[in-house]
């Protein structure tokens, strides 16, 4: 079986999640390639070495350029801050590596497009870490929709709300600046719910958005009295229209008190409704309007071995799956796609499609008008 | 104690709810006036007589004009289809009656304004049946917000979704025509959530709306193959901005499969969040962000005798309150306001304010632009 | 239509609920007799007069013996403390009155039996206020079970838990003494869940109970340092076996922190499960095991006009019903039963059956053994 | 760092869960020993080899006796059917291996005692796979209780209900026979909830149980008309008393329609209540009775990085943890305990304590009386 050597750049919160996925995936799934945890890159050699050992990787480096240039690396996995994604990906592509990048793919749709084009030209495979669509519960929703069990979709309401910046005294960080993060809650969080909307409904064609920076400045550091300006939005809402004619709303916030993983959606069809929140990631609520009038009601389906991918993790419904499990599905798709040279999804193209919707929402707000997604390139 | 004679026009679903409220309110609350169930008007004398007897009213008539002209009637209660509200109210006002009208107050904001002005000129009292704000749970929410327990409000998301027209073969009826209903889901349902938004947050200043008629035509009657055009929207969404700076979204639908009383809202503040659905009308969810980080979480408060108005109904929390109980609070406010000649709320002015927001949403959709509510008169 | 004159004894929390039911029932339901709110009895004439006026009754008295002897009264409604039920009911029966008593019927099964026998001999009708079984949601559960939708019942778990005595400094009151209350949580609360078990499953044949007084003494009054002994149980649990072969557990507590109306039950059958809590009295959860394995899950049914009795209150599901509404169903059954001289349910016989199960649980605990309900008379 | 070589016997559903835990644990946690996935034993060499490869183990064997005798193996992990636990464990202990066994430890408490004694004599470490107590949410509950946040515990209600045998036509299997499974639902499922009760409350002192075999015989195979007798209980209930004076109930069922992972408990204290269901394994409900009367209510705490062990898995609350993650905590405790030669918990002693409570419940049922746990040895 072909070996696939992974080079991981960045070992913060999300890099760690990737590492756990690399550790467990070969035991969970029968992979089509042999996953090798090869090299870790961090900001200095010491940290890189420490993390390589903790994460079960063979080698380490304090210079990511060394990693992307290493002839033994097949896949470059980018878990660095957003503003570095583009440079790292382009460099990796230049060396002919497959690239697996965290979301958002880039700070702007234009940057994302450049990355898509480079990958296509180089003939390398790509993947973006929109892991929530790899949740077996999301796959079950997709199956129910595809079966026509809720009829034609007429409405989508989705959010990605969290409260990590809810406290006005939470210090400023790179997520709050245009040159390091690009958009605010839209880029950091809404990317996921836009991806879900496109996955479960259809492509979004037009948007009309509203953005707001509620906390205008934040302490430079915890306890500091020096305040620094916040440059991007804390919350945003957008009316959306889909290619299939459905309408709806997407909202996002990083100051939504009480939402710890508020990726939620309600999809209404002509014959039923599905509803979901990632905070209860193993539950899907299904309503069928064609049930007898006196036996109608939302049903809570616990994801289990009868549903997509779940049986690889657990023997029974209700045992529960976690965040890292959906990352394992993602890594499985990555490895199998590369090993068999078949398309991986979601790829950079999907990352770009998400980015241009986010850009369209921001443009719509700036110009106070409806914007066609096709206006953005 | 002063007698207050009620004349009830219309005895359908909502007229019946008013009748139950008239029956129980004097026992539930110590009223400041003596409520007399005096006269019922219906489309013919037989039906009127039957309903008067069933509802415990003394007299009946097949002609509403007789009721509004009757010198013994003090309050005219309008529970007829929407398109009759204006004519009946103006005629009642002309006879110097106080008027209690179901929502929406009129088919357009302009009509509503005419009613407000007539009532002011005549010096009569008015009330609109936005009963959901009379729910003790809503009053509790208002109290929590006023206390500053969730800080400054930064976001509102509200819906009034139902599924009574979800089946495409549900026959056409007066709610679907412009000349009998005016707007569709917006007028029939969203009036309530707009009223709640204004009650709990502040006045709405600008809107940007999207409307859609999903089921373009419906059978003339059940089983009929003759299809009749639907003239107003099945669903609508709107971005909103409030005077206090908060932003948010309002949505409404009459085809939202599974929603039986989908009046829901989430109000996010700088220090906490409140969340509510009328389908669980006795529960309020409260999140406090200033709780210790390891003891944060939404708390479900069951409305009880420690909260506004509830103790008049039941001795203990968890006993539960129903739709008709909130109508009893409404009738108490009506009777007490008239008996003591003090302002009643929500009055026709509030009904007009709601109507113009609905009109602004519809205009915004027609012209594909943000609309200031003040553009509508 | 025959007039049925009500004489109400006791106007505390539950007497008030009866009064509200008398007020609204004739408007809610088309009754078969004309309900007359005739006389109120209280501990002194002033209070009686005040309450008669507040509750819309014609007459009042400071002496309940006057009420039960009054020739114009047809129904004596007993809402006094438990220890007075027996004396008042026997006296009312002696005067040939129909009797409507709150639960528990008496302090012991033996007393209850005496009341049953007296009523039978006198040929009067009786009713016990087990109002939770009048909730349309409970009627829906009964219908689902009777239809065989969940198969044969194999297990019942039920509670009636509240927290009104949870604070150890809550002062002593009559519920805590043997001579005024008889049993503690069992008599005050568990009576309801035992009644529900018998209603929804079948008669209980044997029990094995455990009782505990957690707070052994309480302040004589709020703030007092004088402590008075608590004479009956704060909490109790019992294994039960039903005549139909099913097994299960009943639990009760008056110190169950957080339970405001913790009347809950789960009924498991060979083909499905029903689950309910009175704190969400308009919701029934139904699980069907014969659904396809990948579409199984508990369904939340909102009680609505398609279900028993509900349509008389509201036009749509989700509008919600409250505690007083189930009392209205109870009063309807009372009035119709008397007006047409047909059996009323639950009658004193059912009250006695509940009492002897409670006595059997207490005996079982005292003797540390399983007890057949038939051992109690 | 010391190497700890694992020998895994059995690769069915639960052996697979162990394998996944072995794969991810070294990346999740900084372990104190080097975990080596060394050898897999299965019923034949081919299957063993296949699974060793799939699970990332170095070696394999078709004879478990070879594994337990192998000098390089330090820990024997027993994931075989229940009736083999004792023989395998004793043999492993005889070879001086540490033993990690799935629950129930043995078919009877007497067998379990023999295993405890053997391990003590041999001086080897032991662990039983009561993984649900390793859930960070359970650890949070323990912390809240230990802090006294809910006061003194007065009541425990716990279940472990599933529905894997609910269908009467589900074929017979080894769980249904005395000589292969011992007890039925009690042994297979209730072991977990008994362990939780002891962990969160205190040791159980006396029990009174009721057992029932609802489905008396089952098809020999799917579709077969030959019926085979079921030899142990489908469901059981028991009254329990704890050493600390608290009372309560434990129930279990393998035919509880709709329960997929119905490990649930409610713990009531003098100052508050905790409630949990494993089907929502990342949520803990907490009620504080000392909150102001108008702000009381159950709070839903989403387990997160502020709580025990969670931060090793995910960076934020609400991301979610799964069944395999609690197995990873278990494996961490195993490896660290062995590496540092410090006590591991839960050990065989705890497994024996659970077994004798289960035996006491069965004895209580057989003899229809309360049984002291100390009667069982």
UniProtKB/TrEMBL annotation, chains A, B, C, D:
Q: Which residues form the Gfo/Idh/MocA-like oxidoreductase N-terminal domain?
A: 4-130
Keywords on record: Oxidoreductase
Q: Which organism is it from?
A: Pragia fontium
Where is the GFO/IDH/MocA-like oxidoreductase domain positioned along the sequence?
141-274
UniProt xrefs under Pfam families:
GFO_IDH_MocA, GFO_IDH_MocA_C3
Cell membrane is among the record's keywords: no
Coiled-coil regions listed: none
| Protein name per the record | Myo-inositol 2-dehydrogenase
């Amino acid at each position: 079986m072909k070996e696939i050597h992974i080079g991981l750049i960045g070992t913060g919160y999300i890099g760690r999640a990737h590492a756990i996925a690399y550790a467990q995936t070969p035991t969970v799934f029968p992979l089509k390639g042999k996953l090798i945890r090869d090299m870790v890159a961090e900001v200095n050699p010491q940290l890189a070495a420490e993390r390589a050992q903790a994460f079960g990787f063979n080698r380490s480096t304090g210079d990511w350029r060394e990693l992307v240039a290493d002839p033994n690396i097949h896949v470059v996995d980018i878990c660095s801050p957003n503003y570095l994604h583009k440079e790292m990906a382009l460099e990796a592509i230049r060396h002919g590596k497959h690239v697996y990048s965290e979301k958002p793919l880039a700070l702007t749709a234009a940057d994302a497009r450049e990355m898509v084009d480079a990958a296509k030209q180089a003939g390398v495979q790509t993947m973006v870490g929109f892991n929530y669509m790899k949740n077996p519960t999301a796959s079950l929703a997709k199956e129910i929709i595809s079966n026509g069990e809720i009829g034609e979709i007429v409405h989508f309401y989705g959010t990605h709300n969290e409260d990590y910046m809810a406290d006005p005294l939470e210090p400023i960080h790179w997520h709050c600046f245009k040159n390091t993060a690009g958009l605010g809650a839209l880029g950091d969080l809404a990317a996921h719910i836009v991806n879900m909307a496109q996955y479960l409904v259809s492509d979004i064609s037009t948007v009309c958005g509203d953005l707001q920076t509620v906390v205008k400045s934040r302490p430079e550091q915890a306890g500091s009295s020096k305040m620094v300006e916040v440059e991007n939005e804390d919350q945003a809402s957008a009316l959306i229209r889909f290619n299939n004619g459905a309408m709806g709303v997407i909202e996002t916030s990083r100051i939504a008190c009480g939402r710890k993983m508020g990726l939620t959606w309600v999809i209404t069809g002509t014959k039923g409704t599905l509803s979901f929140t990632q905070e209860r990631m193993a539950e899907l609520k299904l309503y069928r309007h064609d049930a007898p009038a006196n036996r109608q009601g939302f049903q809570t389906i616990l994801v289990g071995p009868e549903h997509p991918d779940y049986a690889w993790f657990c023997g029974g419904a209700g045992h529960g799956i976690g965040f890292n499990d959906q990352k394992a599905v993602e890594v499985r798709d990555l490895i199998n796609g590369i090993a068999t040279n078949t398309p991986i999804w979601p790829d950079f193209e999907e990352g770009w499609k998400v980015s241009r919707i986010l850009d369209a929402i921001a443009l719509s707000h700036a110009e106070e008008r409806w914007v066609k997604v096709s206006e953005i390139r």
